[in-house]
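Run: sequence + C2E -> complex structure.
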Amino acid sequence: EQKWLGRNGVCVYDQQLQHEYIRKLKLRDKLKHAIKDKKISVYYQPIIDNKTGTVCKFEALARWYDEHDGFIPPSVFIPIAERYGLIGMLGQQVFEKACADLDRIHRCGFRDVIFSINHSVKEFSQHNQEYIFEIINNYNLPYSAIMIEITESTALDDGKNILEILAAFRERGIAISLDDFGTGYSSLAAIIDIKPDIIKIDRSFIVDIEHSKESQMLVSLVIDLSCKLNVEVVAEGVETQAQLDILSSMSCHYIQGYYYSPAVAIDDAIMILKARNGDISIDNIDTKLLQ
Ligand code: C2E
Ligand code: MG
Ligand code: MG
Ligand code: MG
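>> structure
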């Protein structure tokens, strides 16, 4: 059996790596089929306007349930899709489903609702973005009902080309949202370069906001700066009343997190909107939003 000394002096068995590699390839093939068979579904997590306390947006999040392996999280399959050239197809499918569902929501009468859809780093370099305009037009949705979420590494890695694509989005009225803000290396430069409409402060700063002076300082700094630049702020991963209270005291514009609701299927998203308008009893849904 072969082995070698790893970087930290740890013995790593070749065989173990091989197993890991084979597992990944199997997952890749499964993912390829799941995409081909349109088995990737999309769930929607409410984003709450913190001034009014109402749901105004949803983030579209890809979901994959495999009959054999069960629920496989995006943190596992998105990197695989990116690595093996599947992210274009996957992204397109998510986008298509999200637009079909948003069209349904609008036709239910909730015409102010906006969908925020993740767009991967690799999609910019590997694929044509034209499908975004085509799908939006096919469903006759206003461009202003769609927001594209990118991470700051996306924008800065590939430089100018991405800024041009983003400019084309913006020209049509599609808003740009800077995801996982604070986790990259050039956060402030990214605000200036990308000029996003929205910044989403990463969950890692929210999770310890109660106890970490540093996180508190960063979040309040980002909110103040954003205010000056006319950029709105979403706090990601808000789970407790205490976190919400701190964010409210900082006048954070939008709240997203399990405190209100996890991502839910489209039918439940519509229920949440109906409850928002008082059309149905809130007893019918069991997320915090409905208590
Ligand atoms: P993200 O875009 O930052 O999405 C937010 C993630 O945080 C979601 O995880 C969401 O379920 C989770 N989350 C929301 N509120 C809370 C909370 O209060 N507590 C905790 N612990 N987590 C919370 P999810 O759905 O597992 O997605 C993970 C990441 O995968 C996303 O992070 C995004 O980067 C990527 N992703 C998901 N769907 C897509 C997609 O359709 N396309 C692309 N390119 N990436 C996607
Ligand atoms: Mg996101
Ligand atoms: Mg995020
Ligand atoms: Mg995040």
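>> summary
The CA atoms of residues 38 and 173 lie 29 Å apart. Residues 14-36 form the longest helix (23 residues).
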